[in-house]
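Let's do one together. I've listed all components of the complex below, 1056 residues spread over three lines.
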Amino acid sequence: MRRESLLAALGAIGLVACAWAVPWLKFVLTIALAKGIAVLGILLLLRAGQVSFGHSMFLALGAYTVAFLAPSAPEVLLLLPLAGLLGAGLGLVLGLFLVRYRDIFFGMLNLAFAMVMYSLLEKLYALTKGTDGIRVARLTFAGLEPDRPTQEWIMFGIALGLAIGFGLLVRFYLASPMGRALAGIKTRETRLEFMGVPARRVLLAAYVLSALMGGVGGALIGMTTRHVTPQLAYWTSSGELVFIAILGGAGSALGPFLGATAFELVRVYAAAAVADAWQMILGGVLLVVILFAPGGIWGILARRRQA
Amino acid sequence: MADWFAENGLLLGLALLDGLAYAALVFMVAVGLNLVFGVLRIVNVAHGSLFAIGAYTAASIGIFFASRGLPPWMSYVALVLAAVAVGAVLGPLIEKLLLRRIYGHEDVLQLLVTFALFMILEDVQKLIWGVQPISQDTPLRFLGTVDVPFGEDVIPFTAYQLFVLPGVAVATLLALAWFLRRTLTGRVIVAVTTDKEAATAMGIDAARIMLLTFTFGAGLAALGGALASPTTALVPGVGAQTIVLSFAVVATAGLGQIEGAALTSLLIGLGRSIAVYFAPEFEVVVPYLIMVAVLLVRPQGLFGVIETRRV
Amino acid sequence: MTEAVTRRATLLGAGATAGSLLFAGSGAHAQGKPSELKVGITTFLSGSASVFGVPAKQMGELLFEEINKAGGIGGVPVRPIFVDEAPGTDHLVGEFRRLVQNEGVQLIFASISSGSCLACTPLSDEMKKTTLLWDCGTQRIFEEGSHPFAFRTQGYGTPEVLAPLLYLLKHKPDFRTLAVINQDYAWGRDSWELWKAGMDALKPGVRVVAEMFPRFGATDFSTEVTRLLAARPDVILSTSWGGDLVTLLRQSAERRLFERSTFVLPIAEASMQILGRTMPAGHIIGARGDHFNNHPSPKDPARLKRFVDMYRAKYNEYPIYPCHHMAQAISAMQAGYAKAIAAKGGGWPNDQELANAFRGLTFDSPTSTITLREDGQGLEDQIVGLSSFNDKYPFAVPKDMILFPAAMVSTPVGQKSTDWLKTLKPEILAQVPAPIAG
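Okay, and this is what the predicted structure of the assembly comes out as:
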């Protein structure tokens, strides 16, 4: 456990150094951190053996919250919690229905809701500008509007801070009785019920928390890219989140961030090296990870430490 | 209500004809996915890629036949040839090289292996067939059109759309039902679907059945693509669009249920075409709304069996 | 700047991630004449819009090769860096930054998709990097804000919709009903809004019998075709393109919809080769500009022929309009650099000087010349005609072509297209030039 914290601290310092040394990577890393926060939510559900194949709907919700509200309420410190709350709200509403289902039904229903969201974002053209997407208006930070380079640093800092915060939260949550009960859903759900633990409520709590983190992650993405499109909610984006979770490793709250950083870097470098076959490279990386290192990057690191 | 029918009854009739053809195509893709899921317990995301490759292969063979001056009915041979070739080559290749190594791993890993495969195959298609739309409509033109009366007017439908697509779908459904219920291999497949552990304990070679089922499922996906190819222009990305709809069908139908897949495809096909006529804005959402509605009432899917809960 | 770079470089050496090392050091670019002129080009290399993106890329590579053989631009060899638009906006804006901050590109050619352009132009403002919008058509770019570093080297939605509308009003003035079937995304919606505004002003009282926006990338339109067959509109408008358009037209041809209604297809040109003889004659087709292979009066026929032959020799296909748009951006780049270098007495321009050179620039296109207005919008003529067949091409080309001068069909600077279209008077029809046989 102490090693995990040490590694997290080293990782954070590494990210800051990297963002400082290579300015354009700061943007990529901010996106990676934002996605990492959303993937923490996938990780929670994975503990219960459930795969949400539609989690990008919470990303889209967070991003569009920022895009819609920024013209009237440009304050980042207000928008972030709001996006999280809206994410949690949607998570609660859908969750009440979704926690009755398991496995493929759970995954596919999530997918269905995400696709409904995607279609609405595309269809309600008058509101959302369709696939063109919405440009995010100027933002303020605690009432100030610093110049762009400073803003980029602030966004990076906020993303890093939130990543650490949520990472710790998820770690504590998983160690708590609620978190341990999640693993029970995965192995022997009926046993949980015999012990008097309501499985659905356990899953619902995790789902709402994961939706909240999805909303926050989405808001960060919207604030960083400054342009949001329905693509965020498409099923391939959800697939990406699950991809990241496995790439990083589901064994630790550090996994999502390892995975997201690796994913974004591989994508950027693959796209730079072979612009028309980057998908193949990403797919290849994923295959290799699953076949030869099913514990993900975290699994590799942890094993090396034990050896 | 009566007034509405008097006014729109004829249109509704047209919508039913359109919906039927669409349902047939949806069914062809979904039934293979459902069969594979039933036996292998893997949601094969790459099923959509197999559909696309089947379609492209059929178009290529068809174009080749046409360039050799073969008679137009040979284009139907091209469709079948493409399905068999894709199924027989890619099916065993994928199952043996990839899937076999991850049986028994967590569901999410199995899902992601096929997701990775999907990403790779998307680029492979692009390398082989390029990006310009490819189309080959000899099978369609060979059969010509049929005039369907519409009040005083007539509406031309292609015979392919009206007869071939639903015909093949119904034939596939009947053949599958017969195969699964009446032949030994079919019954073994059903046994593995229902309870793999018990089936293996009784001496069934599950590995062989899985290979067989996957190959068969891949062939069905390719056949679906081949059948769709004469009516559409093939471009990169058709696989991604197709697969996401099939997911909805499989979950709504109930796992491994072929009759369920047929009924769900019909619901979705008709729902969609009625939406195009009377509420076009809802066209895209219809399949998902149907899925949510069905699962609300029947959480195990239309034809699904409630699994005994393990203790 | 230099100091910061050295400090960063040292730090990198000290131990940032291994990945970023690959790109280390290239962040700096010299202020004087560079050893290489890098151009970042965003285009679709995957997904359904790659039907445009890949031919454009192929044309671009041929043209850059030609430029480099002739000694480059201002003596500097040019290197294009292509980037895929398909992974989405968040990826693309990251790539834009990478191109500027890391690859050190001097110029960006941005995007086929309007969404991508809308996301990239504000970045051009912010990073003060000249950005040529080489293909996207949304009128929102220059009508909703000013972008001092962005220039569009081709026409845009308004003229591309208004020219076919005027052609229809000339060719078939007595139509009473119309149906629209467009792809469900920004261009499909916007083009219909523009068309509707123009049509209501020029010919009020046309009944719209069906408005359909099937999913972008849909693979089957048989239901829509049935509905159109039943509704029997006089005119069917579709601004769709790519695989969607090919499928729609083939399904319409098979079921004889072309016999019942006149089609107006403003972006048909790019699909004509694929459709071949399946495309019926006598329907209105456009090309998002004046680049038909049988252009009746190209400014320099030899240049157009060389352009077409060069592409055909390599790819065994005729170039389609995105190839022309790419050529236009490259031609604008050459002209812009020539002007900027001359203005500086032979010196290499900085970002601001380069951008200044583009304002009001006139450059040659393979078919004609294009002038960039003061708001950055290019004025590209539009050719619309009736699909027909002749011995020269194995696919439909227009006859009875009308060449609409760009200024006639473009929204004046400072006005919004939908507002301007509403002010059109039927008298404008008198100004439409006479058709050319072709």
